[in-house]
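#help-structures
NK: newbie question, is this the right format to request a structure? protein is Thioredoxin peroxidase
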Amino acid sequence: MNLVLQKAPKFTAPAVINGEEIVENFSLEQYLGKKYVVFFFYPKDFTFVCPTEILAFQEKLAEFEKRDAVVVGCSTDTEEVHLAWLNTPKNQGGIQGVTYPLVADASKTIAMNYGVLAGHYDYDEEGNQIFVGAPIALRGTFIIDKEGIVRHQVINDFPLGRNIDEALRILDAIRYVEKHGEVCPANWKEGEEAMKPNREGVAEYLSKH
């Protein structure tokens, strides 16, 4: 499911903010016109790969804030489970110290709307509704601009942890394109030369590399 260049699906859901406070009506719309949003899904609380990613985002949080971006996480766990995990020390498998919002998608509708739910509802031969696959989110990452448009998405399988520095690189590229009107070639990083979006610009760039 491709969301790039589309409006990010809206939602209102419970979330834990500042690592300690449950709010009932959290929405990404509060950031419209103000911030870029790095919105990521992870499979489950109290697991193994997930805390490495969540803590890695926290370690780089100041870098995202420098880029005028907020980080928001989401899983299909409840807000109470989020809060319990946030209150569990790192040396006991917890994520204590994480301050960015964690959204509770217990209904699984947010994951479905973003195309990251690892399964689907169906019916068995007797007409009973069943779930086929895993009723949890894959490792999806979405970068949403200040207008609420999805500019980047990537979805990983459960065992594959994501690269937080790549999210920063893509955010840098989005900001550069918006500011300069140029395009960013393969492996571009902040401070490197970009290209004019025409044949002459491409030819000039390639002639230097």
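mod (FA): yep, format's fine, and the tokens are attached above. The chain has two domains: 13-162, 163-209.
NK: thank you!
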